[in-house]
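User:
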Amino acid sequence: MNTRVIIQGSSKSNGNTNTVIQYLNKNNDFDIIDLKTKSIGAFEYDFSNANDDFIPLMETIIKKYDTIIFATPVYWYSMSGVLKTFFDRMSDLLHYKKDLGRLMRGKNMAMISNSGENDLKNGFTMPFIESANYLGMNYLGNTHTWFTKDGSEIALEAKNNIDTFRSLL
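Assistant: Predicted structure:
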């Protein structure tokens, strides 16, 4: 059983983020969860989304995995909306399901992002690092990837970054 999971947070299940994930996972060392296939509503202060896919998904993640790698495209200088909603819902683990949230302590988190160019802006990683800190998780690091000018493949330097990143996990 893999104890590591990649959580794909993209608006497109088979786009560039998935290409990056497939390269990272070329040895099938990770399970993959595609958030696009889940029904996860926005955070609500009254927890009115308590019956969607979020809590059962988190129960599975917490039970099965020690290391969680978030994979996201860069949309408007930030993580994707799909992944941001997931992060917002982690508030459920701090209020509505505190017992579940406490089980995040000691787990590992990492992040891999991608865009058309090697142009990641300062501050992009902050929500990941600070969320890991807040939840008592170990932040293992991150890498940014990009594609060749024609968009047909991951750039060679980015592939090298992925290979180095894989060794940290």
